[in-house]
Amino acid sequence: MDILADSIQANGKALTAGDVGFHYLVSALTQGGKSQLLYEMNTRDDVPGYGYQLRKGATALTESWAALESVSNNHLMLGHLMEWFYEGLGVSGRWKVHQHTGK
Q1: Which residues contact 84 (CB under 8 A, 6 or more apart)?
Q2: Which of 64, 57, 58 lies closest to 78, judged by CA?
């Protein structure tokens, strides 16, 4: 996990995974306790990725990291981060609340 995290840091936290690999990257970072790094990678708006798509005005997932206007702009192909929002962050959030409140 440290080698992967160091590689991501060395690349300026830019997304370098494609459609197939991104799913595994999200899983590896989540399971490896690196959700903060995953968040930081995906909120950058100066390189192609989710933050970049938002900066370009996307209101749905685009078919390409670069949010090209010539391709589908309502596409779930890169939706692995949405899964992480619900399963990674959501489950972790419930677990933390449960630990602190006993509910």
Answers
A1: 26, 30, 35, 38
A2: 64
Write out pLDDT tens, residues 59-78.
888 877 788 888 777 777 66
User: Cα–Cα distance between 82 and 22 in angstroms, integer?
Assistant: 12
Task: Quote the tokens at residue 49.
Answer: 């990725």
What gap in Å lies between CA 28 and CA 38, rounded to an integer?
A: 10
Residue 94 token pair: 């419930």
Other Cβ atoms less than 10 A from the Cβ of 55: the count is: 13
Is residue 24 within 8 Å of 16, Cβ to Cβ?
A: no
* Segments of the chain scoring below 50 in pLDDT: 94-103
